[in-house]
Amino acid sequence: MSAVDRLSVFKTYKLYVGGKFPRSESGRVYEVTDAKGKWLANAPLSSRKDARDAVVAARKAFGGWSGATAYNRGQILYRVAEMLEGRKAQFVHEVADAEGLSKSKAAEQVGATIDRWVWYAGWTDKIAQVVGGGNPVAGPYFNLSSPEPTGVVAVVAPQESSFLGLVSVVAPVIATGNTAIVIASERSPLPALSLGEVLATSDVPGGVVNVLSGRTAEIAAPLAAHQDVNAIDLAGADEALAKELEIAAADNLKRVLRPQPVDDWSATPGIDRMTAFLETKTVWHPTGSLGASGSSY
Amino acid sequence: MYSRYARRYARLVTMPTNAPSPTAERVGGTPSAHALADVTTSDSTLRRFLHGLPGVDAVGLEARAASLGTRSIKTTAKAYAIDLAISMVDLTTLEGADTPGKVRALGAKAVHPDPTDRTTPSTAAVCVYPDMVATAKAAVAGSGVKVASVATAFPAGRAALDVKLADVREAVAAGADEVDMVIDRGAFLAGKYLKVYDEIVAVREVCGTSARLKVIFETGELSTYDNIRRASWLGMLAGADFIKTSTGKVAVNATPANTLLMLEAVRDFRTQTGVQVGVKPAGGIRTSKDAIKFLVLVNETVGEDWLDNHWFRFGASSLLNDLLMQRQKLATGRYSGPDYVTVD
Amino acid sequence: MASAFEYAPAPESRSVVDIAPSYGLFIDGEFTEAAGGKVFKTVSPSTEEVLSEIAQADAEDVDRAVRAARKAFEKWSALPGSERAKYLFRIARIIQERSRELAVLETLDNGKPIKETRDADLPLVAAHFFYYAGWADKLDHAGFGRNPRPLGVAGQVIPWNFPLLMLAWKIAPALATGNTVVLKPAETTPLSALFFADICRQAGLPKGVVNIVTGDGRTGAALVAHPDIDKVAFTGSTAVGKEIARTVAGTRKKLTLELGGKGANIVFDDAPIDQAVEGIVNGIFFNQGQVCCAGSRLLVQESIHDELLESLKRRLSTLRLGDPLDKNTDIGAINSAEQLARITTLADQGEAEGAERWSPACELPTSGYWFAPTLFTNVTQAHTVARDEIFGPVLSVLTFRTPDEAVAKANNTPYGLSAGIWTEKGSRILAVANKLRAGVVWSNTFNKFDPTSPFGGYKESGFGREGGRHGLEAYLAPSSPEGER
């Protein structure tokens, strides 16, 4: 081998929609730089049509994903953690560039991110027991409340925490059976786009997570107004945008998770990010009479 | 609601264009004359038919019965209901200690329930054991009050068919106008529906044209509402003139819910076959308030075609005195007391 | 139904309730005049008799009420839960004691039958307070983190269909969790909320914890828009719900909405038919169909359509429509002239679009607001009567052939509040219930409610749950992500 440095091969970053890696239908890209302004890559600049396509893909995937057993979803999410572990070096590199972190700080972030997948993988078959249950109604009825996924959730990923923050908002959405359209951090979309590559090789069915990069406001507006989107997480929207999106979301009464200040994404999350996108279904059925008057069956 | 079963089981069904008038009932007619005749051709067809009947949701049935029990029957409606209820009583004594004297007293009471008020209607019948039929007949002679006799080894029904038929023959020979038979609950619960059916048909034949047949299911022993619905249809298919809840000899007798269920059965049977069958709740109905609740069930489930003692009866003994006290209260505005009605 | 057995009138006595000629707003423990001095009349829908004159609160009055609630919040939220609990238990007991009075009052002001206010509304109201009373000192164990905090002042706007029950659904959990409230009852049914104010007085509830502001939509809008409330809870139409969602966008106000519905009641060919008929009747004619979770779309398996309809029509012919105070009345009056006009318009539209209309022979009283129980057959998914919430005693009948088709049709609506399933096959119940996108699924029953059972919708039927442990969440601050659990 020659000692001369070989010229490296650049990666073309693409969107992740419906399990495929399309370019933006608009053909546009934008320049992504590191914290110091050095060019890193060109990322797809998604259009409203890309957003629309992502909704179609997410809706198509919803039946299968929400209908999968919770155990199966847990297995798949754990598989994501396994795949990430193997590509850890790549993500450390991308996160360090994106957030201007040292190698060791970035490695901490990536490690915490992988652990977050493991945490949520374990939740899939427990959340129903924690938030659902039998209700002791005053009558001869069996009455059970169970959580069910809300549906298609648009996720405005945090702008600053490009990977840990991203996974901290995406994993809870899909752990419970929702499907997601994720708008990557506008300035630092590369970890999110690379995550799509991991998901594609982790048995996560196509369409369960769809990743779009570009101008947050431009992509979020059509998603907030889309009648076939059931919920929106505004984590990465600023105050003005969040208000605008919340107003648009009212048109079909999307469930809205408002942006909340997060000092430290590595802190143990509660279950609120899961329950925000869960519906409670309560099913009643007669149990047979109380038996006071004879035949009770 | 049952026509899909009828379609499945019956050939050449010809539905009557009008419901029959109450007088067009069949006494002693052949049970095979109606639209569902061929469901009884074998044990398996009968079983398939009975198990193909729609299920009964116990909670819903009891809720409906309870809801009708909240009707508030006042003033003129109450007066009407009390007289109607009196006229529907099968005044009953079925004790080992029954004597001719006791039965004569009961007969006198049936004819003139309230000696102080001759406008009080007579009861529908007196109900006695077969060996008391002749005494009872004499006691009610000339009054229009019928004599009903329990039979078929009442109340358990655990005897050979010959013995049961002999029981019926004795009652009919002694002049019984009505025979209250018990079904073989053991056979029913064992799934031997055709045996139960054949037994009813045999009793029906012995009754001939002279006695109307009431078929007692002992609903408390059948235990489930699905069984009560099946037994109702089984009894009607076999030619019952009345279907009756119970003997009064077990823990659970007539309830609003099981009576409602049987009313639904006779309603649907008439829709299917054109044949009207009566209903008799028996046992446990002791107060006017209870009786009126049952009449509300009749009124709102099968309507006025059944609001007549030809089609609805109460098997009871102590109920009558409570009805009489309520009747006196309505007439005088004062509450009556047990000293103002006769103890028999 | 002409019968030999005609039920004589059995009216519940009005003398048990004493309605004053006029009522003010209940703010900071006192009844006061509205700042603008404006009043409106509340009438009895069954007779159009004016029952009382009610103060119309404007923005200034709402502000006064919110300030009173804010002032009361500090002490109320600092009370030990066990003390708050005892206030709520007192309220529950007083409601039980005064339930006949309140039932008659509700029937007068709303038009619904006394049978329902007596046997459904009032028992549920008392039970709801009793249930949430018990939570007040057990919130640490409710699954929302340790020492969960109240939000502050709750602005609550409720509808006219279950005036006192909706008040209970709103106020009981709010108070149990340590919030204070400003509640606006519906314009056409303000009386029971004002009587509730008197119950608060009897219970010795601290001033300002519960404030009642009466008025129309403008009052509600002023309340929802008030900058110093922390929580908005609304039950009512989807259109207004969306407007409220826009109003609170970008604020800190936590929002729960319980809105409209177009519930599908699915009857399979193996259903317990007699009970299904009762369930259908209860599903759409309970409270004259003015129920957000009404089973207003009957989806019947085609193979039993004709027979089921025959049974249903026979049953409808026995419904007794008339004086709501009569204990034997099944169908009372429509709540207002406005609602009657809406029902009439939609029903006429159903007819114009080609659906087949049927009502039992039924004589309507000459004064008041009345609408006969109505069935539409030959209805398709495209008909307005199959899509729009009518909020009246109007049932649209559609057919299906397979369970898949039933589920698809049931879900084919922007709403998602309730659904019914009738079949004797257990696995089919569970499979279909699983696929229905609705917050409450009644199998082999319908329109059952209980304080322990969470209630609320999917999709455009709103969000958040009322009732049960779930109902607490709407009134508690989000748990801190760190350390609290």
Automatic annotation (TrEMBL), chain A:
Residue ranges of coiled coil: none
* Domain Aldehyde dehydrogenase: from-to ranges: 25-256
Q: Which InterPro entries match?
A: Ald_DH/histidinol_DH, Ald_DH_N, Aldehyde_DH_dom
Organism, as annotated: Streptomyces aurantiogriseus
List GO molecular-function terms, semicolon-separated.
Answer: oxidoreductase activity
Keywords attached to this Swiss-Prot or TrEMBL record, sorted alphabetically, are: Oxidoreductase
The top of its lineage is: Bacteria, Bacillati, Actinomycetota, Actinomycetes, Kitasatosporales
> Which named protein is this?
Aldehyde dehydrogenase
Q: Which Pfam families match?
A: Aldedh
From TrEMBL, chain B:
Pfam families, per database record: DeoC (PF01791)
What pathway does the UniProt record associate with this protein? Carbohydrate degradation; 2-deoxy-D-ribose 1-phosphate degradation; D-glyceraldehyde 3-phosphate and acetaldehyde from 2-deoxy-alpha-D-ribose 1-phosphate: step 2/2
Please verify whether the record's keywords include Lyase: yes
Highest taxon in the source lineage: Bacteria
Among SMART domains, the record links this protein to: DeoC (SM01133)
The alphabetized UniProt keywords are: Lyase, Schiff base
Q: Which GO terms describe its biological process?
A: carbohydrate catabolic process; deoxyribonucleotide catabolic process
Gene3D superfamilies assigned to the protein according to its UniProt record, in alphabetical order: Aldolase class I
Which reaction equations make up its catalytic activity? 2-deoxy-D-ribose 5-phosphate = D-glyceraldehyde 3-phosphate + acetaldehyde
- GO cellular-component terms in the record? cytoplasm
Q: Which family does it belong to?
A: Belongs to the DeoC/FbaB aldolase family. DeoC type 2 subfamily.
| PANTHER family named in the record | DEOXYRIBOSE-PHOSPHATE ALDOLASE
Protein name per Swiss-Prot or TrEMBL: Deoxyribose-phosphate aldolase
Q: What is the lineage of its organism?
A: Bacteria, Bacillati, Actinomycetota, Actinomycetes, Kitasatosporales
UniProtKB/TrEMBL annotation, chain C:
Keywords attached to this Swiss-Prot or TrEMBL record, sorted alphabetically, are: Oxidoreductase
Concerning Gene3D superfamilies, the annotation shows: Aldehyde Dehydrogenase, Chain A, domain 1, Aldehyde Dehydrogenase, Chain A, domain 2
Q: What is this protein called?
A: Aldehyde dehydrogenase
User: Which GO terms label this protein's molecular function in UniProt?
Assistant: oxidoreductase activity, acting on the aldehyde or oxo group of donors, NAD or NADP as acceptor
What domain of life does the UniProt record list for this protein's source? Bacteria
Annotated source species: Streptomyces aurantiogriseus
Q: Lineage in the entry?
A: Bacteria, Bacillati, Actinomycetota, Actinomycetes, Kitasatosporales
UniProt lists the family membership as follows: Belongs to the aldehyde dehydrogenase family.
InterPro entries assigned to the protein according to its UniProt record, in alphabetical order: Ald_DH/histidinol_DH, Ald_DH_C, Ald_DH_CS_CYS, Ald_DH_N, Aldehyde_DH_dom
Keyword check for Oxidoreductase, yes or no: yes
- Is Oxidoreductase found in the keyword set? yes
UniProt domain Aldehyde dehydrogenase: residue ranges:
32-477
Q: Where is the composition biased (Basic and acidic residues)?
A: 462-472
Where is the segment annotated Disordered? 461-485
